[in-house]
Amino acid sequence: MLLTRNVRLGAKRTSMRLEPAMWEALEEIARRESIAPDEVVGVVCGTRPARTTLTAAVRVFIVDYFRVAATEEGHCRAGHGAVTPPQAARIRMHEAV
After folding, report:
1. Is the pLDDT of residue 29 over 60?
2. The whole model's pTM is what?
């Protein structure tokens, strides 16, 4: 399910459709960086490659942001790594959502 929300890029307003988890991730990034979600989108808009939609660029930015933040220590604390059968089932279930 995609949710449509309006974002402001300077004086312009545009709409974006993202999954609820992506909107939550965008809001978390904004909180962590102490800026508004619209400002995060503005940064992405100003640096996205030509012919890339804003929505696609925001999705890639979100994934990249958290990939850079992910560390081996963090993965260990979260229980990631050696995947046992119950963990594998949880991962597959999460992927289906």
Report:
1. yes
2. 0.75
Q: How far apart are CA 12 and CA 7, in angstroms?
A: 8
What does the buried/exposed string (b/e) look like for 31-66 if buried means 16 or more CB atoms within 10 Å of the residue's CB? eeeeeebbebbbebbeebeeeeebbebbbebbeebe
Q: Which domain holds residue 29?
A: 3-96
Assign residue 19 the CATH number of its domain.
1.10.3990
Share of the chain above pLDDT 90, in %: 64
As a residue count, the chain comes to 97
Which residues lie across from 71 on neighbouring strands?
A: none
Q: How many CB atoms lie within 10 A of CB 4?
A: 8
